[in-house]
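Supplementary Text 2. Reproducibility record for the structural model of the 170-residue chain.

All settings were left at their defaults, and a single model was retained for analysis rather than an ensemble. We include the record here because the model underlies the residue-level annotations in Supplementary Table 4.
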Amino acid sequence: MSGTPRKQVILGRISGLMGIKGWVKVHSYTEPKESIVGFRDWILCAQGAESRIKVEGGHLQGRTVVAKLQGVDDRDEARTLIGTQIAVAREDLPACEPGEYYWTDLEGFDVRTLSDEALGYVDFLFSTGGHDVMVVAGTRERMIPFVQGRIIHKVDLDSGVITVDWDPSY
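Retained model, structure tokens:
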């Protein structure tokens, strides 16, 4: 649909410098973290402005992801990018396997109990290491473990509703 803004997904941020030839250190939110450099077109977001840039190369160096960006050829140019968020267009993400979801796709979904009681909407999700957690905003904030089959009974992508086995008094 023309006129509809393209959804962007934040994948990380530029966190530092590497060497003198314009390479940057990247704090990646992807899993595995080095997969961020597999996206060849980044949208850099800083102070309300956006710019598109090509990734010329990148890799895991020790525990740090480093990247070389097109047109950024020295340390001074790279320094101006520190703190910049890295995004990609949602449609550039690979398709999910059945039963898997990108968190960004679930944000804003209505959350309802098995008895169809509204709990609110998905504000955001985060990982605890053991499992993911949905933060549901509504009359009050709830943190609901995203455990499929046990707590999450249905994710309806078409209607934007997640059905949960959850006591509304929690």
